[in-house]
Specification:
This protein is an alpha+beta fold. The protein is built from seven helices and 27 strands. Helix 2 packs across helix 3 and helix 4 runs antiparallel to helix 5.
Length: 595
C-alpha cells in the first residue's frame, strides 16, 4: 500500500494575509446582500419624466440602514417641493404617503404640478467696454430671448456663470456683478430676471515669453497664431498651444496667462516648452503579396537646428522593391502649412518583365490651402533597366505639380466616410537635358461609405503619357504604366499586366510585358461587418495598362476577410481572373490605413 503525504509550510505572515482575504470576501458578500435587500422603495405619481428625475435627484439615495428611514421620509415632501420650484412650479401640490405594511416600505409621492411660472421680464445688461463689443451684446441678446419661457432656477444660475465665463474668456478680466436678482410672484406665476454685469476694461495680449527651448524666436513667431496687441481671448492661447504641439518640435507645451503681472491692461503670456527627443527610430517587419516579406528601418530627427530643419531617412528591404529614401525639410513662412523639401532616393523594382534600378532627387515646395495639399517639384530621375540580358538607361529632369486631398470621417483604422483624390502632371523635353519629350498625367481616386453593417468602396486609377511617338522602348519603366497586384487588379501578379513585345532571347522569340503609355483601372468592393473587428468583402477589379487604340481590359472577382487591427485593416483576399482563357487566381495579403 502506498501512502502519499503532502507537507504544507504556512508562515505567520501568510496566515495573516489569508485571514485578511477571507475577511474581505465575507465583507463584500455582506455588502452585496445588504444592497440587494431594499429597505424603502419610492414611487412618484403625476409628474413628468423631467420632474421625476429632478425630484429623485433632490431626494437622494434611499436609506441603507433602518435607522435612516424615518428621517428620509420626513424630508421627502419638502425636498420634492424644492425640486418642483427649481423647475418653475411654485404652486405644486405635493403629498407623501407611507405604506409601512409593504415589504419593502413604500413611499408614494403624489404630484399635482399646477401651472408653471413664466419669465415675464428678462433684464440683462453688461456695461463697461462690453457696451461697445457687438459680440458681447449679441451674446446678451441671445440670453434675453428666453423671456416668456418657463422659469428654471438651474438655468438662471447657468446664465450668471455663462456671462462671467464669457467675459473672462474674452479679455474682461476685472469684471464684477453689480446686481443679480430673481423676483418671483407665485400668485401670478410670473418671474423677473435682473442681471447687471460691469465688464470693466477689456485687456489685450501682452508679451509672449518662451521658456525651455532654443528654437529661434523668428520660427516661434511664425508658429504663433497670436497678433501682438489684439484683444485677449483664452481661445487664442489654446490655438497657440495647438500650433506648437503640431509642429513636432516639442514633447510638451504649456501656455498660461500671467495674471499676476498685468500692466496697462496688457496680459503677458508664458509658454513653457520641452523639446522633443533629438532622434526617433522605428523598426518594422511586414508582409504583402506584391513585394513579399519586408523589413523597414526609419530614422527621424524632428529638429536638426534652431531654425526647425528636420530629416527622415527610410530604408526598406524586400525581394522585389528594396529602397532607401532621404527627406530633408525646411519650414516655410507658415511652418504648419508650408515646407521646402529635398529628397534623395535609390530604388529597385520589377515592372512586368523589366528589372529596374532608379536614382532620383527632387526639390519640392509644398503647401496646404483650403484642405488641398499643393506640391510644386522638380524631379531628377536616372534609371537603368534590363530585359533578357540587354541593358538600357535614361535620365530626365521633370518639373511637375501634385494636388491631393483626403476627407475622412470616423476612426483611422476603419473610416465610415471618406474620399481620397490625387492628381499629378509632369513634363520634360530634350531642351532640359532629358532623354526624351514627355508630358505625363496621373490620377487616383478612392471613395468609401458605411451604412449600418454595410460598406461600399470604389477605387479608380488613370494615367497617360504623351511622348510624340507610339513606342515606349526608350521610356524608363517607372514612367510607363503597368497593372496587377494588391493595389491594382487583384488576381494577377504585381505589375504583370500591360502591353507586350516580342523579344528575341536565348530560348527563342518570347512575349514580354513591357508596359504602356496609358492606364485605366477601377474597382468596386462591398463589405459586410461580421463584428466590430471583422468584416467580409466581395469585389471585382477591371482595367489594364495599354497603348493608344489597343485597350484590352481584364477583370477579376474575389472575396476576402478583413481584421480591423489597431494599426489598420489586415486584409486576406482570394481573387480570380475571369477574363482569361486560363484564369489565374491569387491570394493577396496586405495591411494598413485605407485613407
Amino acid at each position: 500500500m502506498s501512502i502519499f503525504v503532502l507537507h504544507f509550510r504556512l508562515s505567520i505572515p501568510f496566515l495573516h494575509a489569508l485571514l485578511a482575504a477571507l475577511f474581505s470576501i465575507s465583507t463584500l458578500l455582506v455588502s452585496v446582500h445588504s444592497r440587494a435587500d431594499e429597505l424603502l422603495s419610492v414611487e412618484i405619481q403625476g409628474a413628468s419624466e423631467s420632474q421625476q428625475q429632478n425630484i429623485i435627484a433632490h431626494l437622494g439615495t434611499p436609506p441603507q440602514a433602518p435607522g435612516q428611514i424615518n428621517s428620509y421620509i420626513a424630508k421627502a415632501r419638502e425636498r420634492a417641493i424644492t425640486a418642483m420650484v427649481a423647475l418653475g412650479y411654485n404652486n405644486a401640490d405635493i403629498s407623501a404617503e407611507v405604506l409601512r405594511e409593504q415589504s419593502p416600505i413604500q413611499l408614494v409621492i403624489k404630484v399635482k404640478a399646477g401651472p408653471p411660472t413664466h419669465i415675464s421680464v428678462m433684464d440683462i445688461h453688461a456695461s463697461g467696454d462690453a457696451e461697445h463689443d457687438p459680440k458681447f451684446q449679441s451674446f446678451i441678446d441671445e440670453i434675453n430671448t428666453h423671456q416668456g419661457a418657463v422659469l428654471n432656477h438651474g438655468q438662471y444660475e447657468s446664465w450668471k456663470s455663462q456671462i462671467q465665463n464669457y467675459a473672462r474668456s474674452n479679455g474682461y478680466l476685472a469684471g464684477k456683478w453689480q446686481h443679480h436678482e430673481l423676483l418671483i410672484d407665485a400668485a401670478r406665476q410670473q418671474a423677473e430676471v435682473h442681471l447687471r454685469y460691469d465688464a470693466g476694461l477689456r485687456h489685450r495680449l501682452g508679451e509672449v515669453q518662451y521658456l525651455g527651448s532654443d528654437v529661434a524666436p523668428e520660427l516661434l513667431a511664425r508658429l504663433s497664431p497670436l497678433t501682438p496687441g489684439e484683444y485677449y481671448q483664452s481661445s487664442h492661447l489654446s490655438a497657440l498651444e495647438s500650433s506648437l504641439r503640431r509642429s513636432g518640435y516639442f514633447a510638451d507645451v504649456l501656455v498660461t496667462p500671467n495674471l499676476d503681472h498685468i500692466e496697462q491692461q496688457q496680459v503677458p503670456v508664458k509658454v513653457a516648452l520641452r523639446d522633443a527627443p533629438s532622434h526617433s527610430f522605428k523598426v518594422g517587419l511586414g508582409y504583402v503579396t506584391d513585394t513579399g516579406t519586408r523589413a523597414q528601418f526609419n530614422w527621424r530627427t524632428p529638429r536638426i537646428n534652431r531654425w526647425g530643419h528636420s530629416q527622415e531617412t527610410t530604408v526598406r528591404y524586400s525581394a522585389v522593391n528594396p529602397y532607401v529614401n532621404f527627406l530633408y525639410q525646411i519650414p516655410g513662412e507658415d511652418p504648419l502649412t508650408q515646407t521646402y523639401q529635398l529628397m534623395l532616393g535609390l530604388e529597385q523594382n520589377d515592372y512586368g518583365d523589366l528589372s529596374s534600378t532608379l536614382r532620383h532627387a527632387a526639390v519640392i515646395s509644398q503647401s496646404t490651402k483650403h484642405k488641398w495639399v499643393w506640391a510644386a517639384q522638380t524631379r531628377w530621375l536616372d534609371e537603368s533597366w534590363r530585359l533578357d540580358g540587354l541593358d538600357f538607361q535614361a535620365s530626365y529632369l521633370l518639373p511637375g505639380l501634385t494636388l491631393s486631398r483626403t476627407k475622412r470621417h470616423g476612426p483611422i483604422r476603419d473610416p465610415e466616410e471618406g474620399f481620397m483624390q490625387t492628381y499629378q502632371v509632369e513634363a520634360t523635353d530634350k531642351a532640359l537635358g532629358s532623354d526624351g519629350r514627355l508630358v505625363r498625367f496621373t490620377g487616383f481616386w478612392k471613395w468609401l461609405s458605411r451604412f449600418g453593417d454595410h460598406r461600399l468602396v470604389l477605387k479608380g486609377q488613370a494615367g497617360v503619357n504623351i511622348t510624340g511617338i507610339d513606342s515606349v522602348e526608350d521610356l524608363a519603366p517607372s514612367l510607363r504604366f503597368f497593372a496587377g497586384g494588391d493595389q491594382s487588379i487583384r488576381g494577377f501578379d504585381y505589375n504583370s499586366l500591360g502591353p507586350t513585345a516580342e523579344v528575341q532571347t536565348s530560348e527563342g522569340l518570347q512575349t514580354k510585358v513591357v508596359g504602356g503609355k496609358m492606364l485605366a483601372v477601377g474597382s468596386v468592393e462591398y463589405q459586410y461587418y461580421l463584428s466590430p473587428d471583422w468584416r467580409m468583402a466581395i469585389f471585382t477589379d477591371a482595367g489594364n495598362a495599354f497603348n493608344r487604340h489597343h485597350f484590352k481590359p481584364v477583370q477579376s472577382v474575389g472575396t476576402g476577410l478583413h481584421w480591423l487591427s489597431p494599426v489598420g485593416a489586415v486584409r486576406i483576399e482570394l481573387a480570380y481572373g475571369i477574363s482569361e482563357d486560363n484564369p489565374p487566381w491569387r491570394i493577396h495579403i496586405s495591411m494598413g490605413a485605407e485613407l
